Amino acid sequence: QVRLVESGGGVVQAGGSLRLSCAASGYSYGGMGWFRQAPGKEREGVAILSRDGRTIYGDSVKGRFTISQGDAGNTLGLQMNSLEPEDTAMYYCAAGPYFDFYPKRYPYWGQGTQVTVSS
């Protein structure tokens, strides 16, 4: 059974940092990463890591966020620096056979962790 569990969300002031983690089990993925969804907006890709180490980042987070894999290989991290109020959203960990930013191509999702950035 595939299971993705996120942690690390919270409330931070603009300019601050947070680190999200996703613990994964039961699946050998092609792509694994983070999406986010703010109220009233569509779910968007934040950062994806492929099995062979390639990464893609959303334009709004390039240079501020870094995706990484844990040493054990079954955890995924997202270091978020220079946070902005526009980064406020529910952040979801996702895994699937592809390496792209199309949410519908990811069959496995965590329950999400809330990130709130105050101005």
Write structural notes for this entry.
The chain is mainly beta and 119 residues long. It is built from no helices and eleven strands. Strands 2, 4, 5, 6, 9, 10 and 11 form a seven-stranded mixed sheet that branches. It has a four-stranded antiparallel sheet with strand order 1-3-8-7, with no helix packed on it. The chain is globular and about 40 Å long. The mean pLDDT is 94.
Fold blueprint:
Blueprint lengths: L2 E5 L2 E4 L4 E8 L5 E7 L6 E7 L4 E3 L7 E5 L5 E6 L8 E8 L11 E2 L3 E6 L1
Parallel strand pairs: 2-11
Antiparallel strand pairs: 1-3, 3-8, 4-5, 4-9, 5-6, 7-8, 9-10, 9-11
**Count of DSSP-assigned helices:** 0
Kindly state the mean pLDDT as a whole number? 94
User: What's the overall geometry?
Assistant: globular
Helix content: under 10%
The residue ranges in which pLDDT falls below 50 over 5 or more consecutive positions are none
How is the main sheet built?
7 strands, mixed
Q: How much strand content do the residues show?
A: over 45%
* Ends apart, CA distance between termini: 40 Å
**Helix and strand succession?**
EEEEEEEEEEE
In angstroms, what is the radius of gyration?
13 Å
**Secondary structure: number of strands:** 11
Class inferred from helices and paired strands: mainly beta
